């Protein structure tokens, strides 16, 4: 604690993160990595001071009735841990569960190196934007990029394919993510190339896809749930950039070949797309 | 510039007159009148009867609002009306009234998206610059964020609207529809304290209410006076569950779902402002929950009172005038209405952020 200072600030700005961490982390001084809607995510270490890990804490929601809050926190935390363990067992790339306490609302997970697909896409869109000064249509531009930078496009499509396969693999083992956005897909740099070097940016499209944040995941084999997963991902792509929708086709293509039953899910996806309310009906 | 707005997409007919003195000054509400068609307890409002109600009231309300505003007909620049979404027959009767005025007074028309009307009025009243908007009413449940000249829908209901869920539960319990069912359910809920288990259905960014309504209806069937006391629904502590408790449980559950998806949208967009609009937005418990969530994220919650969050003519006038000032009008032959009109179909030409 800081020593006694002269005068406390008359209007000390309230910290954005006012939560106290639960035991045994209460007295540790951890920095928040992200504040999701559900959980606060911290970086800490596990067993050795050099092994990073993620602490995911679901604080009580002040707006929710305490009984409902406890019920949801416990159910979601346990479901998350179970799903992660199951994925691990089946060989789907997800963070390992290192510890947890569902009464207190925390989980400790393996640290995943790398960047999110969202970041990768944003940077790609940014590069696209640099070439868009003459204000042409983005789809034309995307086509132009395909022609001009065939190599980059091929690697980008390769990445999209790996996304499709990773999601397919997840669905195949009977898990639906529930919040499958581009922020919840990590690209882990391949093998031992983990020390950051100046030419790393060239290789950032390589690497395996690791799925993270299973806070809303369910164990299900319903094509409906699988299709909703894909729909959420599709909207995340569309929200990034109109040109990114084009890339999503590659995700779907590889997904469709990734496991038995994937084709049915793609058919169902067409129904899910139409389901938004108050859409203009044709016919 | 001055606009008159006609709204009648559901069971309220509203006429409002607004003035935009200059681009840098806040809009001035000159008149904001409304009349509601109220159906008997246990019944909803039928499109046909609602349209008859609107036709009976529209002329009276227009005359009254012009008188109240103290404007001359020649000072009015544009006539705005609700193009949709909403119930067909009520929309049609109000669109017809707008067309008639347009010919009679020789003034241009602007057809307005009802949802955009709510959003713009909410922003004007609360001065929230770029909030995530939760639009909750009897016919709509949407989480909306602005991006590149569109109000984009982040999450919405997959089946019935939240207000419809509340209204229909009020019918199950035979709670009166006057002044409106949601208000009465809210008063019941204030007296309730037992939280019974109801399904909690958040799917990604979307929510679903029909299953919760069915579950609540089933529970309501187990608390009737006609059932022997031994067989009636009890809490874990053995207390008898009342209508008030059911209203309380319903509100706590469905509002928590709404706040959850709104929080997800805020986390995604990276804003700490949230604005609640629409009829259900007048619920004080929902406003309180939103404010708690926003404060927890270091931001603030905004809401308007029943004059502006329940359907009204002034919001149609306001949003229509904003559009009119960008040079857009609706030609007489195009002045139709539609039951389906998504929020993200409207090009928001009056915002450039």
From TrEMBL, chain A:
Gene3D superfamilies tied to this protein: Phosphorylase Kinase, domain 1, Transferase(Phosphotransferase) domain 1
Major enzyme class: transferase
Family annotation (PROSITE patterns): PROTEIN_KINASE_DOM, PROTEIN_KINASE_TYR
Pfam families: Kdo
Superkingdom: Eukaryota
Key word Nucleotide-binding present: yes
Annotated localization: Chromosome, Telomere; Cytoplasm; Nucleus
InterPro entries linked to this entry: Bud32 (IPR022495), Kinase-like_dom_sf (IPR011009), Prot_kinase_dom (IPR000719), Tyr_kinase_AS (IPR008266)
Domain Protein kinase: 27-283
GO molecular function: ATP binding; hydrolase activity; protein serine/threonine kinase activity
GO terms classed as biological process: tRNA processing; tRNA threonylcarbamoyladenosine metabolic process
Subunit structure of this chain's protein: Component of the EKC/KEOPS complex composed of at least BUD32, CGI121, GON7, KAE1 and PCC1; the whole complex dimerizes.
PANTHER family: EKC_KEOPS COMPLEX SUBUNIT TP53RK, NON-SPECIFIC SERINE/THREONINE PROTEIN KINASE
Family the entry assigns: Belongs to the protein kinase superfamily. BUD32 family.
Name under which the protein is recorded: EKC/KEOPS complex subunit BUD32
TrEMBL record, chain B:
Note on how the cofactor is bound: Binds 1 divalent metal cation per subunit.
PROSITE patterns: GLYCOPROTEASE
CDD domains assigned to the protein according to its UniProt record, in alphabetical order: ASKHA_NBD_OSGEP_like_euk
Binding site for a divalent metal cation: 114, 118, 135, 311
Keyword terms, alphabetized: Acyltransferase, Cytoplasm, Metal-binding, Nucleus, Transferase, tRNA processing
Compartments reported by the entry: Cytoplasm; Nucleus
Keyword flag tRNA processing: yes
Reactions mediated catalytically: L-threonylcarbamoyladenylate + adenosine(37) in tRNA = N(6)-L-threonylcarbamoyladenosine(37) in tRNA + AMP + H(+)
Annotated protein name in UniProt: N(6)-L-threonylcarbamoyladenine synthase
UniProt source species: Lojkania enalia
